[in-house]
Amino acid sequence: MFSKMLVANRGEIAVRIIRACKEMGVSTVAVFSEADRDALHVSLADESICIGPAAVQESYLNMTSIISAAVMTGAQAIHPGYGLLSENARFADLCEKCNIVFIGPPADVITRMGDKDAARQAMEEAGVPVIPGSGIVSGVIEAKEEAERIGYPLIIKARSGGGGRGIRVVEDSAGFENAFMIAAAEAQGAFGDGAVYLEKYLSPAKHIEMQMLCDHHGNVVCLGERECSIQRKNQKLLEESPSPAVTPEVRERMTKVSVKAARAVKYRNAGTIEYLFDKDGNFYFMEMNTRLQVEHTVTEKVTGIDLVKWQIRIAAGLELAFSQEDIGIKGHAIECRINSENPSLNFRPSSGKVSLLHIPGGPWVRFDTALYQDYVVPPFYDSMIGKLIVHAPTREEAIRKMQAALCELVIEGVDHNSELQMEILSDEDFSAGNYYTDFMAKRG
Amino acid sequence: MLEKGLFKKPNNPLEIHEKAVDAQQPSIPEEMCVSCPSCKETLFANELEENLSVCHSCGHHFRIGARQRIDIMLDPDTFTEFYGHMVSTNILRFPEYEKKLQKAADASGEKEAVVCGTGRIGGFSVAVFAMDHLFMMGSMGTVVGEKITRIFEYATENRLPVVGFTVSGGARMQEGILSLMQMAKTSAAVKRHSDAGNLYITVLTDPTSGGVTASFAMEGDVIVSEPKAFIGFAGPVVIEQTMRQKLPEGFQRAELLLEKGFVDDIVKRRDLKAYLARLLDLHRRGT
Can the peptide bond before residue A153 be classed as cis, meaning omega within 30 degrees of 0? Predict the structure, then answer.
């Protein structure tokens, strides 16, 4: 096992990873920006190093600073968390060159899965159902031809997109040319890569993803699904496991396909395969996330498996201690993301001092956060300030528990969205499990 | 806020397992990173090379060797080297010169401080020479002078334009007066090439100085420079000590020389190939 590890992230996920390390007896090194001097992860870690100014480009994305910090402190591994450098193949490659274990898949797998077109092809070859679509379309004429073949409505996606960015829906052929030009230009601007491809737009559809764990000994295990259809502007808001729409038979099929897919791309460590799931129970590969997910917590609850600890163990060369047959889904778990934004003011981000904090408690209630009393939420980073997770024997009981827990959550000083979460939980369609990715848009 | 040592360290022993990774210690391979001399930013060597050895952060143009220069500027696989066998000898029996030559050869991987040949830029045939700063700072001895003279003679005979990339500390003192004579010899060859109606473009790179500046480097029909290149005859220290006065800012830099008319244009390395191709196109000879 690694005796020391560096956590190249901030906020609740850095805290989450440091906690895992503390249990495992691994010493931790936190890195922080000048704006994060007082952050919880800095105090929790055994050592901490400032890696640059507030802007992420100069700190949390500053590869040279982070690698230098690891070398200086003698950290043998780097956990990138999610976001930031977690899906950066160059960073993974740099770590390897510097004799540091990158906790995640190898750089070439990140590269392949990060190229949405290549990922799609790899999945198709592995026999995974993919959404009807095109390869990279180069010109507007070729694109138009492909569009007619696929049929409307369809979406134009950037090859290098991600995190819900670089996606454009086209309803009919009239708006296609215009949308195509804008999408390509946007992709060029945002990702430095103007390549786009087309996909049939499945609507209504659910967003369902399968959690994978793959060790270095050829063992691949699927830890069931998560439903993440409650999204606003392609950002997930609430996740649950299991999905109310997935029957045991469908789960078995999805599990088999996902295991096959992970094997086909020689996947390592924790990863997630995202699918679009239509009303008839058909599922299509969307993309693979080569990292830990924000919503990994619900999977931990229903499977009893600590994903972060296993990420670290796998990276250290340990073999998985369980096989597919050992995986059982017990009860139901829900996660609500608590964002420091004001839903009634068009989700305006909020920052400032937390003047009063009360964290919900009780059995099977978990709150992952980096907040503490009097902490000042800086304005520079992601608006997610906490994740409330509950676990109960049934979905209905889980919803009740979450309602109660949300009422107990008090964060004064910054705006947040817990009331919106309560409204979602009380929604009839939500209670019936009858909701799709357009749920938030339809609410208005 | 949170005081240091607020949280105790749990008394958990390290999770045991048979495979020890403890022996592995992180280290940064020496060749992996380069510090930009201008902005001090740490750059990754492979990315710097992909960016034509120009700093991503401040645009500082790193010095590059003759081969890399030819690789960047010429169309792929079009370069044919000439006079590659020529090597310097210690004609004046200058102390330690052999050792210096050996060291320079080891450092640069070249036999001499200039590489000559023919190739294409943007499809246009050219005779080309590129000097190498790693070989005794591109200093001009008899072999450098001879190779440059020969490439001009070849270009005159074959009616080819010459594109030359200069980087030099000046004449090679180990060859004394024989080095200085190369100034006249190369200049004569340039003149004959020019009289025959051929184009000569010089690209001055950091640093171009001494006898090279005083001869073929400044004799181009079009003289372009890379940004911030040092271009001069004597060095600033020598001038300051002789003149006993402080030199103005930016003295002997490409930008000042452009202002004073010694240089025709300053072109970034990234744009240089297309720029040269355009010049070659404009000066295409009628057939």
Answer: yes
Could you say which of A38, A98, A317 has the minimum Cβ distance to residue B21? A317
* All residues at 6 or more sequence positions from B209 whose CB lies less than 8 Å from its CB, including other chains: B168, B169, B170, B230, B231, B232, B233, B234, B235
Pairwise CB contact (< 8 Å): B14 & A70: no
Instruction: Give ∠ CA A109-A114-A115 in degrees, rounded to 5.
Output: 105
Asked if the structure places residue A308 within a domain, the reply is yes
Q: What is the pLDDT of residues B247-277, one digit of tens each?
A: 888 899 999 999 999 999 999 999 999 999 9
State the residue range of the domain holding A82.
4-103
Q: Is the bond preceding residue B207 a cis peptide, omega within 30 degrees?
A: yes
The two three-digit tokens of residue A147, written as one number: 């569009």
Residues 6+ apart with CB under 8 A from B238: none
Strand partners, B202: B164, B223
Mean pLDDT across chain A, nearest whole number?
92
Question: What does DSSP assign to residue A322?
Answer: -
Domain boundaries, chain B: 29-62, 64-282
Please choose, from the candidates B130, B213, B211, the residue with its C-alpha nearest in 3D space to the C-alpha of residue B175. B211
A vs B: CB pairs below 8 A: 81
Please check whether residues A161 and A288 belong to one and the same domain: no
Q: Chain B: residue nearest A376 by CA?
A: B1
ipTM above 0.85, yes or no: no
| CATH number for the domain that contains residue A192 | 3.30.1490.20
Secondary structure of B22-56 in the HEC alphabet? CCCCCCCCHHHEEECCCCCCEEEHHHHHHCCCECC
Known catalytic residue at A37? no
Is the confidence at residue B22, as pLDDT, over 90?
A: no
What is the C-alpha to C-alpha distance for residues A65 and A78, in angstroms, rounded to an integer?
13
Query: What's the full length of chain A, in residues?
Result: 444
| Among B3, B13, B21, beta carbon nearest to A76 | B21
Is the CB of B27 less than 8 angstroms away from the CB of A24? no
The pair phi, psi for residue B237, each rounded to 5°, is: -65, -45
A80: nearest Cα among A71, A90, A91: A91
A313-369 pLDDT per residue, tens: 999 888 999 999 999 999 999 999 999 999 999 999 999 999 999 999 999 999 999
**Which amino acid, one-letter code, is at B76?**
P
- How buried is residue B203: exposed, middle or buried, by Cβ count under 10 Å (0-12/13-18/19+)? buried
Mean per-residue pLDDT for B107-126? 96
pLDDT at B19 exceeding the cut of 70: no
| Residue A98 phi, psi (nearest 5) | -95, 15
- Give the CATH fold of the B64-282 domain: 2-enoyl-CoA Hydratase; Chain A, domain 1 (3.90.226)
The rounded distance, in Å, linking the Cα atoms of A409 and A357 is: 8
What are the chain A neighbours of B4 within 8 Å (beta carbons)? 43
Rounded to whole angstroms, the Cα distance separating A149 from A157 reads: 17
Strand partners, B34: B43
Q: Does A392 map to a domain?
A: yes
Give the bridge partners for B163, in sequence order.
Answer: B128, B201
DSSP-derived secondary structure letter, B134: T
Closest C-alpha among A272, A422, A413, A433 to residue A336: A422
CA-nearest of A187, A164, A169, A166 to A179 is A169
- A-proximal residues of B, 165-204, CB under 8 Å: none
Is residue B39 within 8 angstroms of chain A, CB to CB?
Answer: no
